[in-house]
Amino acid sequence: MAVVIDGKEAAASVIAAVTEAAGALEKDAGVKPGLAVVIVGDDPASHAYVNSKSKMAKQCGFNSIQHSLPEDTTQEDLEKLVAELNADPAIHGVLVQLPLPKHLDAEPVILSISPGKDVDGLHVVNAGKIAAGDLSTGLISCTPAGAMLLVNRIHGRDLSGLSAVVIGRSNLFGKPMALLLLAANATVTMAHSRTKDLASVCRNADILVAAVGRPQMVKADWVKPGATVIDVGINRVPAPDKGEGKTRLVGDVAYAEAAEVAGAITPVPGGVGPMTIAMLMANTVIAAYRAAGKAAPRF
Ligand SMILES: Nc1nc2c(c(=O)[nH]1)N[C@@H](CN(C=O)c1ccc(C(=O)N[C@@H](CCC(=O)O)C(=O)O)cc1)CN2
After folding, report:
1. How far is residue 14's CA from residue 147's CA, in Å, rounded to a whole number?
2. Cα of 49 from ligand 1 centre, angstroms
3. Residue of 104, 120, 146 lying closest to 15 (CA atoms)
4. 120 has catalytic annotation
5. Which one of 117, 120, 236, 291 has the lowest number of neighbouring Cβ atoms within 10 Å?
6. Residue 186 in contact with residue 162, Cβ under 8 Å?
7. How many CB atoms lie within 10 A of CB 293?
8. What is the distance in A from the centroid of ligand 1 to the CA of 239?
9. Which domain holds residue 230?
10. Tens digits of per-residue pLDDT, 268-289?
11. Is 268 in the pocket of ligand 1 (CB under 6 A)?
12. How far apart are CA 81 and CA 91, in angstroms?
């Protein structure tokens, strides 16, 4: 049976370190990290994530601000709000919750965030720094940064000699994750929906990372015995056993059967998910240290 990689516990230790770093910055430089979270529309899941972010920011000792905009917000108004937050010296991190309502284009909104305040790490300047192998002067996208910390818990920081397969090629996760694994010296393959014989590609992986958005797609016979499996999927599926209309959360990996083969595996829930919010707090405190002209902590 695989070791279960506990994302809640890992996230709690990041949050403890962030809280300590925030306290030290306020004491030494009189700067309280400030996080502004912007949400547009009424999507209940997005509101739940944003509320968790605002609550966690307060818990870390940050100045936490939430802007909830109506569904019919225009592109211009959203970008105007981002410009105001960019100019506000009390705000060190700006985040726009995704997805946006269909009439809005996320890309120009992300590009309108100052790269130094882009605590989601999605601006092309921050993405480009990772691509160039610079992991120390930009801000790294939260979910891949969190997934890497979980990989490091099993394998350490140097992945020399290990093969890694990332299934999924999104800008939000797959591409930055592959680059982080490469920067740690893993031999990386990016697989996706057009990959031929995906199962056999995955079976070569010492580290298998699934981010496909398809419930339980990765089966036990896709997993190399002893491999580390990182499941980034968050899929809500019907759970008739819990009652009519009830749902449960599952990942992109068929967890119970994959855990019989893997050496280590992240659960869903309680794996990569909690790391996303912890790394957002880490990026905010890093941005605040840099704005104060101080050397930023590493997490
Ligand atoms: N601007 C952004 N938008 C979105 C991001 C993001 O990183 N930046 N990621 C996702 C949603 N998300 C954060 O925003 C997020 C998703 C899931 C979790 C999490 O902790 N999941 C739990 C389960 C929660 C549940 O019960 O529903 C887990 O996996 O254990 C945190 C954050 C899309 N949008």
Report:
1. 13
2. 6
3. 146
4. yes
5. 236
6. yes
7. 8
8. 21
9. 142-268
10. 999 999 999 999 999 999 999 9
11. yes
12. 13
121 CB near ligand 1 (under 6 Å): no
Q: Which atom of ligand 1 is nearest to the CA of 275?
A: 20
Q: What pLDDT band is residue 194 in, cutting at 50, 70 and 90? A: very high
Both tokens assigned to 149: 């910390």
Q: Judge if 117 and 181 occupy the same domain.
A: no
- Number of folded domains that form the chain: 2
Same domain, 148 and 116: no
Cβ-contact 281, 14 below 8 angstroms: yes
| CATH code of the domain covering residue 198 | 3.40.50.720
Q: Calculate mean pLDDT across residues 243-269.
A: 97
For residue 50, the model assigns a pLDDT of 98
Task: Indicate which CATH number applies to the domain containing 59.
Answer: 3.40.50.10860
Q: What is the pLDDT of residue 189?
A: 98
- Please indicate, yes or no, whether residues 87 and 31 belong to a single structural domain of this protein: yes
Q: What is the 3-state secondary structure (H, E, C) of 200-216?
A: HHHCCCCEEEECCCCCC
Does ligand 1 come within 6 angstroms of the Cβ of 213? Answer: no
Model ipTM value:
0.96
Q: State the Cα–Cα distance between residues 139 and 128, nearest whole angstrom.
A: 11
Give yes or no: residues 68 and 93 share one domain: yes
Assess whether 95 and 196 both reside in one domain: no
Single pTM value for the model: 0.97
Average pLDDT over residues 160-187: 97
Residues 92/284, Cβ–Cβ less than 8 Å: yes
